Amino acid sequence: SNVNLTKDFASTKKIKLFDGELMQVILNIFKNAQDNFKLKSISKAKIWIKTSDSKDKIIISICDNGGGIDKSIIKKIFDPYFSTKSEKNGTGLGLYMSKMIVEDHHAGKLSVSNSDKGVCFNIELPLNRKISTIS
After folding, report:
1. CA-to-CA separations, 125 to 18, 28, 92, in angstroms, rounded
2. Is the per-residue pLDDT at 133 higher than 80?
3. Predicted structure pTM score
């Protein structure tokens, strides 16, 4: 889709995780960015993905230059069935499920904030956690 992807993988720590689930979270964030680029006709679309380490966690940051999320709805985007897309193009479950995957299945934190160019999603994953089975 003609999106420039910049990667900066600086994390050196390893953690146990459900990699297929975490990939779904990342793909969902990418897909939402792609949809937003198209909706807003962003001509030089860019996504930055960066990993870093802190004392007790790994942080994955995914940012774009798509103009950000309106302040009036940014606190609602993780709510179930909340969508800015038309009914046939969105169920409002993608970011809700992403939050559940990160927070319930990985004991982490998924957050969002606007930047000067667009939006940034941060995934924080703790280094020391017990893997629980998913029911």
Report:
1. 12, 18, 24
2. no
3. 0.89
Q: Which residues contact 116 (CB under 8 A, 6 or more apart)?
A: none
CA 83, CA 101: separation in Å to the nearest integer?
19
Alpha-carbon dihedral 15, 112, 27, 83, rounded to 10 degrees: 140
The amino acid sitting at 54 is S
Nearest-angstrom CA–CA distance, 125 and 135: 20
Instruction: Give Cα separations from 2 to 43, 106, 118 (angstroms).
Output: 9, 32, 17
Q: According to the model, what pLDDT value does residue 135 have?
A: 44
d(CA 93, CA 124): 20
Q: Is 111 helix (H, G, I), strand (E, B) or coil?
A: strand
What span, in angstroms and rounded, lies between the C-alpha atoms of 103 and 99?
A: 6
Give alpha helix (H) positions in 1-135: 19-39, 94-100
CA distance 23 to 31: 12
